[in-house]
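#random but structural
TW: two for the price of one
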Amino acid sequence: MNNLASFNHLNPDSILKSMESIGFEPTGRCVPLNSVENRVYDIEVEDKTRYVTKFYRPGRWSKEQIQEEHDFLFELRDAEIPVLAPIQLEKGKSIYDFENLMFAIWPLRTGRIIEEIAESDLQQLGRLLGRIHSVGKAKQTKYRPRLDIQNHAQKALSLIEDGGWIANQNLLKRYKDAALITFTTYENLINTYAIPMQRIHGDCHKGNLLHSKDGFSFLDFDDFLEGPVVQDFWMLLPFGGSKEQYERELFFEGYQEFAELSDNWLKLIEPLRGIRYIHYAAWIAKRWTDPSFPNLFPHFGTEEYWLNETLDLEKMGTALQESSDLYPEENFDQKKAPKEELSNKDFFWDWEG
């Protein structure tokens, strides 16, 4: 059985045996936790202590890349920043192997995932993320990826195109044109304002934020990479009207006690949003042979799905081109993609209008 097959067929017996292989005596309690990318379980051992055991999806990260994530968490922990770091059982070891799968264990921390951030918590949360970014700035990554166009965004777009996921060639062209506007904007903003790259969380949204009696903790650094700090803002904070602006100012007031921030860096938010649209679609496409993915994303890959994705990217691209504030015109040499009127015939193969 290959690594991915072992991963897809993990069962309570093999999971408990993995804990026994590193010296624990599990009671038999094995509860799966909500995770799509990896396989994560709540395991109880003989003294009633509970641990979170995480099996890494084969082929995504190398052992060196996972170790670099763990080392970053150890740095944050040693700086007394409230994050969950993996448990080291012997000689600093935090990655274990069982049946050709890599796994790690964490202490179980109880709390609640928050749906909305209270105004009174915004400064505290800003300080926490500022402290994380302050540590992240101290050194560069060696093995983890970089949030750039060539290795992050363009590879995702190529996976969608090369995999034939958008069969309608007219729609594919529009999707690629809109993506190119987003990519060009991102690169030009990075270069124009000399926006620095550093170690960041990478997937910083409210679902990865735990609140307990001890305050906030950031969870799940699985997408840890090197990129602009703004990537850790736009999914976490509201952006829009005057009320949202006031809330952001409170957050940034706390953040800037520990880390640098320029208003110009926030211009990356819209292109980062577009890059995530593409990267997320490629992530699903790459894992489509995993039996859980077609069940979780039944609409993925349909004509309607790609139409909606394309329209969202085009709308974003138009806004980027028309906004001199977001996009420095003197650096923009990508012309607007020609707008063609589309009909049902363009999107549905069986339409006979």
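TW: number two ↓
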Amino acid sequence: MNLWQLVLTELKAIVSDKAIAVTLFGGVLFYSVLYPLPYLHQVPTEQQLIVVDLDHSSLSRQLIRHADASAKIQVIGQVGSITEAKRFIETGKAHGLLVIPEGFRRDLLLGKGVTLSYGGDASYFLIYSAVAEGLVSAGMDAGKQVQLIGMLAQGKNPKEAEQNLNSLHLNSVPAFNPSLGYTPYVVPGLFLLILHQTLLIGTGILGAGQWRSRSYWQQVSPLQLVCGRILAFMLIYMVFTSFYVGYCYHWYKVSIQASLGQVALWLLPFLLSTAAAGVAMSTLFSRRDLPTQVLLLISMPILFVSGFVWPIALIPEPLVLGSQIIPAVPAIMGMLELNQMGASWASVLPQWLQLWGLFVLFFGLAILGIKRRVRALAEIDAS
């Protein structure tokens, strides 16, 4: 059996195996819709806000109206104490609180500094950011109104006073996430993680189901089997990857900074190292259900150590160093830098070389693992 015959045999084994076919074809299509679904309403607006007004003045009521008029927040009510406001946040009825101190109007009219206190649920960074941004904007608007009243009282020309208030304009232009939403931020990393996990599960199920039975895998050398199996899965995942990076990126309006050639060059060692890791991992199992169980358990830790949903600085350093042997970790970070942030190829070159190093490592481990399986089966036959 030559290499191409082996590849065809591997493809038939993959397609005819219901568990593998559902994991690969069903999983990739299903997750392309399921995972991005919670992030489709990606720009947080109208976040519920509870107000603690200790001043009860005309100016504090004006500030509350300014806050409610903001597109970022919605005032849902007022309470008499911070403790009551916290209960709203703890029960999920509100995402933020605003505390207007006693003497707010008096101190502003006297030209004294006033501190507005605000806070919220920081479990979701973009929601917390929306609350903070809306309140800061409302506070600045209220401050400008007080300044305008003071200038007019001093006898300044209304037009001159208005120009002095608007002397500083903030022009905020997002560099890497134009919509400031969840989808362009989360989806690119999630798609690579889906490809990584399904590829590992597919190769794991295929190998684990064969090692204890006699089949075509014994008719070829371990080197030829590893090459044929990796090539077979690569042919399938070239289609899956094109679907994710091509159609899905366009459908979900994910920003693209790199060229097609750079993306293809980056994904090549990622898919090769993942396929080799899957073959090597499969030699550790003799039950078809175990690869799926193990990989589902470690999928969330991989998501966090990848660094795009949780800051790397907040993860223990030994865990970060240990995660570098997982192909998805350098692949996700490098892909985000290259394709979403417009980094140069030189800046991601170390991670690209790391993926090639992981491919060589897992390729060697896969051959050793298959040789061990061959010896174990021979010992069973001898006994």
